[in-house]
Design a protein that fits this description.
The complex is a heterodimer of chains A (139) and B (151). Chain A is an alpha+beta fold and 139 residues long. Chain A is 44% helix and 23% strand. Chain A has two domains: 1-31; 42-135, Alpha-Beta Plaits (2-Layer Sandwich), CATH 3.30.70. Chain A has helices at residues 2-24, 57-80, 101-107, 129-135; strands at 42-51, 83-88, 91-97, 118-126. In chain A, strand 2 (83-88) and strand 3 (91-97) form a beta hairpin. Chain B has seven helices and five strands; from the N terminus they run βαβαβαβαβααα. The chains are: A alpha+beta (139), B alpha/beta (151).
Chain lengths: 139, 151
């Protein structure tokens, strides 16, 4: 019985060595499958701010996060993870990802700032911050 | 130019007929609270649209939906205090029975307005196809207005 076990172990060892060597010499073709969904997963949503009051970036981010939580719950808030990148004049840029940008856009009208009348209007979605900045007029 | 929109909550068909006699020229939106009122609102040409909400969802049975399809009656869902269950229902019905679903903001103030892109993504997150959502948001209101101009 012990001899049989030894033979099996030896056989498996030789097979392992053969596979490693063949991988190095590229006899066996192994294709690495890249998950295309991981590529350029970032999304930047440009929105307009319509309000007569002055609103700080922190207030806007908090209101948007609360709105996403109201519509999609904690799960979608953590998936989308919206962050206000910048406010320029009456435009804003929010960063999110490819899986969460739709829930973010859908929840923008639900965003409310305390004691202030404000409306966030989604304009465009881009994949790069450079392009988002260009679209709102920053060179 | 623009037409006035009037929304009424109808408990029976008599209240609809009385109202239509006094207000002949307006876009009349009716929220029926009984089967009788719903049937009358679908059949009557002067009624522009029927309002669907969680209060009258139980009235929309298969026979009523078939009648809506027969008369091409638009069905409106108000988004100012929307219910996800109602939205899900109207989306599924819109593929088969409701030809012209309307999604209105019904805003009292400017900060309650729903932008079209947000409406589309709201429908998509509730399970609608993107193409259909765009069609419902952009073309259903046009159909309602053009239909009313013929009168």
């Amino acid at each position: 019985m012990n001899i049989f076990n030894l033979i099996v172990i030896l056989w498996l060892f030789t097979l392992t060595v053969a596979v490693i060597l063949s991988y190095r010499t590229k006899i066996i073709y192994i294709k690495k499958i890249k998950n295309k969904r991981d590529i350029r997963a970032k999304r930047y949503v440009i929105f307009d701010i319509i309000s007569q009051d002055n609103i700080e970036q922190k207030e806007i981010e908090e209101s948007i996060r609360n709105a996403v939580k109201e519509l999609g719950g904690k799960l979608w808030l953590e998936i989308a993870n919206p962050k206000v990148i910048m406010i320029y004049q009456n435009h804003g840029i929010v960063s999110t990802n490819r899986s969460g940008y739709k829930i973010l856009i859908a929840s923008l009208p639900l965003a409310k700032v305390q004691n202030k009348h404000v409306l966030f209007v989604p304009r465009r979605t881009t994949g790069s911050l450079k392009r988002a900045k260009k679209l709102i007029g920053i060179k | 130019m623009g037409q006035k929109r009037i929304t009424i909550i109808a408990k029976n068909s008599k209240s609809i007929t009385n109202f239509l006699k006094t207000n002949p020229k307006a876009l009349v939106f009716i929220k029926p609270l009984s089967i009788d009122a719903l049937k009358y609102a679908i059949i009557n040409d002067k009624v522009s649209s029927i309002i669907l909400s969680s209060d009258n969802l139980h009235l929309f049975k298969k026979t009523m939906l078939s009648l809506i399809r027969q008369y091409d009656k638009p069905v409106e869902v108000q988004l100012h205090n929307f219910n996800s269950f109602v939205l899900r229902k109207i989306i599924t019905w819109s593929y088969r029975w409701v030809m012209y679903p309307l999604f209105s903001s019904c805003a009292n103030n400017f900060d309650e307005i729903w932008p079209p892109l947000a409406k589309i993504d709201l429908l998509v997150t509730h399970g609608a196809d993107e193409e259909e959502a765009i069609k419902w948001i952009y073309f259903s209101p046009q159909k309602l207005i053009s239909k009313d101009e013929h009168f």
